[in-house]
Amino acid sequence: MDWIFLAELTVNGALTGLLYSLVAIGLVLIYKSSAVPNLAQGALTMLGAYIVLAFSHNLGWSLWIAIPLSVVIMFFVGIGIERVALRRLAGRPIVMILMMTMGLDIFLRGTTLAIWGGSSRSMNLGVSYDPFFVGDMLLSRIHILGAGVAIALFVAFMLFFRTRMGIRLRAISDDYLASWSVGISVEGGVGLSWGLASIVAVATGVIWGEVQGVDQSLSLLLLKGLTVAVLGGLDSILGAIVAGIILGIMESVGSFYLDAIVGGGSRELIVAAVLILTVMIRPHGLFGRHDIERI
Amino acid sequence: MFYRLSGVHHNSYKSDSKLFPVRADRNAVIFFLVLGVAAPFLIPSLYLNSYILPWLIWTAAVLGLNLVTGWAGQLHLGYAAVMAVGAYSAVHAAKFGIPWEFALLIGGLASSLIGSLFAFTALRVKGLYLALTTLAMQFVMDWVLTHSPAISGGSHASLQAPTFALLGQKITSDAGLYYVAFGWCVLVTIFMLNLKRTGLGRALVAVREKDFAAAILGVNSFYYKVVAFAASSFIAGVTGALLVATFYFLAAPEQFAVNVSIQVLAMVIIGGLGSIIGSYMGAALILLMPGVVNQIFSSVAEIMGWNWVSKRWPISRMQPMAR
Q1: pLDDT tens digits for A114-159?
Q2: Computed from CA positions of residues A274, A280, A282, A288, in that sequence, does the dihedral angle turn out positive or negative?
Q3: Which CATH number fits domain B43-304: 2.30.30, 1.10.760, 1.10.3470, 2.50.20?
Q4: Is this prediction's ipTM beyond 0.85?
Q5: What is this structure's pTM?
Q6: Are B132 and A37 within 8 A, CB to CB?
Q7: CA-atom Rg of chain B in angstroms
Q8: Most B CBs within 10 Å, among A109, A269, A279, to test the B interface
C-alpha cells in the first residue's frame, strides 16, 4: 500500500464528501427552522439541475444567465411547496410529514421524467476534465470546484445567520410560540428556509449534474445527504460540512478495502451502515442539539 | 364520518368486547365473504388474477404493516425488505423440496427473525430516527439481495418459484391461486379484527399512545414492541412468499425495493392508521390508481390528439411503481 495512493483516496473522498454536504445543507436548513425532514431534497436537486438545463440547452442561453434565473425560480418553488404542502401539516404526527415529503419526492421525479425523459444529459459547465495535480495526487477539478461551493455556502449561511433575518430564523428554530409572541412571522421564516434550501438545491444540482450527468439518479443523492445530515446533527450546518468530509473519506477509503472482499458496490453499504450506527449510538449526531427524542 | 356506535349501549363486558358491536357490520362482512368466495364465478379470470389477487395479497401486507405502524405506532420503512426475506427463504425452501405449507412457515419465521432486528432500533429511537434507520436497513437488505448470488441467483437475476402446492395438490388454475390469496387475506383480517379484543392489542395501543404511561400501567413497552415487529414481520414474510408463489411466479430484488416499502406505508396511511377496512381501500387506491389515471390520461390524450403520454404503467402486470 503506498501512501500517496491512500492520500489521494482520502483527499478525493473528502472532496466528494463536501459535495454530499451540499445536499445535507439543504436538509439542515429546513430541519433547523421547521423540524421537517425534507426527503424531497434529492428530487429538488434534480429539479434544479433540469431547470438550469432547460434554460441553458433548450433555450440556448448562457449558463451565467441560466443559473441565476433558476435560483430565482427554485426559490419560489421552495416557498410554494412549503405554502401548499407543508404548512397545513404543522403539528401533525411525523409520519404524515415524512409521507408528504416522500410523496413530493415521487411527484417531482415523476414530473421530471414525464417532461424531460429518462436519458442522461450533461451540464457542460466548461470545467476541464483534465486531472489536477497536487504533488503526485490526481484530483478532479469539478470536485474541487464543488467543494469550494460547499465551503462558500457554509460561510455565507454562517454570516446569514448573524443578520437580522438569520437571527429570526434561529429564533424560530428555537421555539415557535416564543417567536410568534414577539412578532416574528414563523410561517414567513419557514417558507424562507424552504426557499434557501431550494437555492442550495440548484447549486447542488449544477455541481452534481456536471459530475455524473443530469438524470433521475440525481434524486438518489438523498440517502447520502441524509446520512451526512444525521451524522453531523440534523440542525447543524457546521455538522453537515464536517460529517460530509468524514463520510466521504470513510466511503472512499472503506470501499477500496471492502470492494476487494465483497466484490464491488460497497459504497451504499457503508453509507447505510453509518446511518444506522449514528442513529443507534448518537442520534443527535456530532454537533446536533441533544433534545432529540429518545426512549 | 358517521358515529356508528350511536345508540349502542353495552351492559356487560362481554357485549363491549363483541367482534361486531353493530349488526350491520357483521352482515356486511358476511356479504363480502360470500362475494369473495363467489368471485371466480363472477369476474373474468384476467381481472381476477391481475387486479383482485394482487389487491388481496397487498391488503394482507398492509394489514401486517398496520399492526406495527397503526397499532404499535412504530414507523417502518423497511417493510418490503422483510417481505423479501420471507419470499426468498420460502422459495429456497420450496426449491429444496420442502412442501409449500412448511416453506411458507419457514418464510414467515425467517422474516420474523430478521424483522425483530428492526425492533431493536425501535427500542432505542422513535419517530423520524426510527424511520431513517428502517430506511437504511431496507437499503442494506437491497444490497445484500443484489450482491449475494447464493440468495438471489446473481445480480439482475430472478429466482423461479416452484409450482405452488397445498396438501400435495398442485395449484395452477386461476381460481385456485385466487382462493389461496383470498384465504390468506381472510386469515390475516380475522387476526387483526380480533387483535383489538385481546390484551395484546390493548397493550400495543397503550404503547402507541404513550410509552411511559404504558409502562406505569405495567405494560412492558420493549417486550410489546418486539412482539409487534415479530408478528408483523411474520405476516410480511408469508405475504411476500405468497406474492411470489401466486402472482409473480419468480422472485427478483426489484420487487422488494425501497419504493415498494414507501408504497405499502402509503397504503397504510391512506387507509388510516389502525383501520382494517381502510387497509383494503388504501391498497386498492395505490395499486389500481396509477393504471386508472394512466388510462384516463391516454384516453384524454387520444381525444385531444396529443401523443406525449406514454403507457408507462402496463396494466396487465400490477406491481406498485414498476420502474
Answers
A1: 888 778 887 777 777 777 777 777 788 888 888 999 999 999 999 9
A2: positive
A3: 1.10.3470
A4: no
A5: 0.85
A6: yes
A7: 20
A8: A279
